[in-house]
Specification:
mainly alpha, three-stranded antiparallel sheet, 4 helices, transmembrane, membrane, transmembrane helix
Length: 149
């Protein structure tokens, strides 16, 4: 029995004994059978005795931060905030379809437009405050100067 196991082990010593984790790509020389959480991969090292093992899919949790940030940025600059919100929603749709790379790319675009909207809104707010302060000081000067004459 032991010699039979050693012979079997020697035949497949080049294969890993632990399941391999593949990212989003799949090996091209494998036959795939998908289920909900795992992928059955059948690799045939030779024409004799195929080896079968399971590969766990990497599950990425969804975070609502991109959508919340995008909706808040819409208050700062509607145009860029709207684009950020649309991209965050598309990111969620891709994540629901288990297309994690596309979801990540769209989430980053959403963050970019959100940051741009917040920056533009902040700059406009600072300019507005400076103009408001200048106008009120000019009005006070005019009122003080006209009140004394």
């Amino acid at each position: 029995m032991t010699t039979q196991m050693n012979k079997s082990f020697d035949q497949f010593h080049h294969l890993q004994t632990e399941p391999q984790r593949f990212g989003l790509g799949t090996p091209s020389s494998s036959a795939l059978q998908t289920s909900n959480d795992t992928t059955q991969v059948m690799i045939q090292p030779g024409q004799n005795n195929p080896t079968q093992f399971e590969v766990d899919r990497i599950s990425v949790p969804w975070s609502w931060c991109s959508l919340v940030t995008a909706m808040m940025s819409m208050l700062c600059c509607f145009f860029f905030g709207f684009i950020a919100t649309v991209m965050a929603i598309l990111s969620y749709v891709d994540h629901s379809g288990k297309q994690f790379e596309r979801s990540k790319a769209k989430r980053y675009v959403s963050y970019g437009f959100s940051i741009a909207a917040i920056a533009i809104g902040s700059i406009i707010a600072v300019i507005g405050i400076v103009i408001l302060v200048n106008v009120t000081t000019k009005v006070e000067e005019v009122l003080i100067n006209n009140g004394g004459n």
